[in-house]
Amino acid sequence: MSTELKHFTISVTPDLEIQLNTAKKEKYCKNTHNEMIRDLISRGLIARKKGTSTK
Description:
Elements: H1 14-26, H2 33-50
């Protein structure tokens, strides 16, 4: 991954906030929120590319 980072601002629904908080507690407790979000985005993009996305 490139060391040059771009900044993004997003808005999330209350339901998505709950899901993200749960993921943080259960799987990403040793990671920062930024690391967690980058990982989730990367996994989603990989799944989408493979055609295994849920949407």
